[in-house]
Amino acid sequence: MYVKKSGDSYKLLIFASMIHYRPIVIGWLLLLPTFLLAQPADDWGAFAQRIRVDKHRGKHFRLQAAVKVDLIDSTAEAEIWVRVDRVNERPGFFYNMMDKPIRKSDWQVYAIEGEIDEDAAFLAFGGLYSRAGKFYFDDFQLFVEDDQGQLERVAVPSGDFEGDSVAHHWGYLQKHKDFILTGTTDSPYLGKRSAVVDGSGYIADKKNE
């Protein structure tokens, strides 16, 4: 599905409407298995935040963000991801775009759609990145269906990365010494700042090659 952004040629790429997808891994480790099937355990990282969604149980949602990648290693990639955390830490909806890796050097908007579980507590989401490169993220937006069936925007703290400190609302889900998350004024998608994960210093572990 391609939706042109008003006034320019950016594309909104809807990669998932996986309403009934239910992985079986618990807690924060829910993010790991699909990624690790394709990647060595030490070549990637992820950042995240969580917001409460108990008021939106059973509703359709869309998470979107602008992403671009400056490749150093041709196999480097980025993704966005989202997971519903249900009560009692039971797994809910989850998708991490591992079947649609991002390697484009120009800004494009990518989106994930799904359903918030009936017993949801939090929605966790953020960015993934792997191997040597620089990975740029901007303008995270969340939309949730209202009682009239229309998608209504829900605030994402520091979703535009315009604040002085990315770390105020975003943290590492999978921290790796060779991937550093900061804010940057270098060619943001919107506004004056975006987030960048600098993985230019990543050196592959030859035993995993």
The major sheet is characterized as: 8 strands, mixed
Question: Average pLDDT, to the nearest integer?
Answer: 82
Count of discrete alpha- or pi-helical segments spanning 4 or more residues? 1
Approximate strand percentage: over 45%
The N- to C-terminal Cα distance equals: 35 Å
**Category from helices, strands and their pairing:** mainly beta
Shape: globular
Tell me the count of domains.
1
- The CATH class is Mainly Beta
- What is the percent of helical residues? under 10%
- Report the count of strand segments: 13
H-E order: EEHEEEEEEEEEEE
| Radius of gyration over C-alpha positions, nearest whole angstrom | 16 Å
Runs with pLDDT <50, length 5+?
A: 1-39
CATH topology-level fold name? Jelly Rolls
Describe this protein's structure:
It contains 1 helix and 13 strands; from the N terminus they run E-E-H-E-E-E-E-E-E-E-E-E-E-E. It is mainly β. The chain has a single domain (2-203), classed as Jelly Rolls, CATH 2.60.120. The strands form 2 sheets. Strands 1, 2, 4, 7, 9, 10, 12 and 13 form an 8-stranded mixed β-sheet that branches. Strands 6-5-8-3-11 form a 5-stranded antiparallel β-sheet, with no helix packed on it. Strand 5 and strand 6 form a beta hairpin. The relative contact order is 0.23. The model is unreliable at 1-39 (pLDDT under 50).
What topology does this entry show?
Blueprint: E1 2-4, E2 11-17, H1 32-38, E3 44-52, E4 60-71, E5 77-86, E6 91-95, E7 108-115, E8 120-130, E9 133-145, E10 151-154, E11 171-174, E12 180-184, E13 194-198
Parallel strand pairs: 2-7
Antiparallel strand pairs: 1-2, 3-8, 3-11, 4-7, 4-9, 5-6, 5-8, 9-10, 9-13, 12-13
